[in-house]
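Field: sequence (string)
Field: structure_tokens (string)

Example rows 1 and 2, in order.
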Amino acid sequence: MLNTTAASQRETLAALDLSWLEPQLMRRHGFDAARAARAVRHYRCFLEIAADHPERPVAPPAGADKAWHVHMLYNERYNEFCRTVFGTILHHDPEAFGTPAFAQAWEFTRAQFAERMNVALPGLDGAAPSDADLRAEQCWLAERSSAAVTDPDLQAEQCWVVARDVRH
């Protein structure tokens, strides 16, 4: 069950127009319109998970991470958004990748995406992806499912949102 704060955050997130990120993803990352829209949907899901579980780190899939990066480029807008929705800035931690804590965060994120969006994110237990998008950004995992999810936007990224202190 969501606490009052999480429910309020979810309402704010549901009403928030993030569609402005789509043309930015198209321009900055070469996404087509459908891919950009999906990345923004995944970003919104990632944000909802962070709102519902402030005590847990959450690791975004690659497409959501690209949307998150674009959002952060507009730092005034991003900071205002975070303060409005979360009461604090969601910090990006690129140093967590490869740690047991990152693996736990990714497994939690996978379970949440499956439950919320019926999206199967790959595990961290197979070969590195061959997708040039991921190699160029060096955001590939040394361990990934050999069941080869070919969609680069569903791969784990090398970062996560840091758990937040929810005591007020």
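Row 2 begins here:
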Amino acid sequence: MKKIIFTLLILVSITVMQAEPIRVGDNAPNIVVTLDDGTTEDLGTLFQEGPVLVYFYPKSFTGGCTTQACNLRDNASGIDNADITVFGVSADDVDTQKRFREEHQLPFHLVADTELELTKAFGVPTNPRGFPKRQSFILKGGKVVWRDLAAAPSTQAEDAIKAVQNIEE
């Protein structure tokens, strides 16, 4: 019986890990999420406007995730000049997201995707522990206009700004 349960868990993990991310040109997901301050946000409405950067990261307070968030924080003026709204997403709970945002003085909200609803809506793969893979998407006019399936933590802001500038041209 233990072998059957273990095998089923492995199959489910593999299925989740092999999710296909949404593609450029796909419709943006219409979803309401919970933010780090406990409020909800209708991302579907924001995605109709844009540009909105949604970046997925494995876990708050880890090296790469902190680098990525702080890169966005440190380049806030460039992000503001490009008129980009930013949301970071992980499976961490509201309290963890709130502490992470406060400790690193992040000027944008973090989504507490504890049930992986937004992660699944974007088709972002997860590891066996349920942590989303590091991927980023820009949405505008209700569509996905850019994606980075191997987002670099140390250049996340620059990559997003460049992508928006290229989209606008």
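free_text_note (row 2): Residues 121 and 156 are 21 Å apart (CA to CA).
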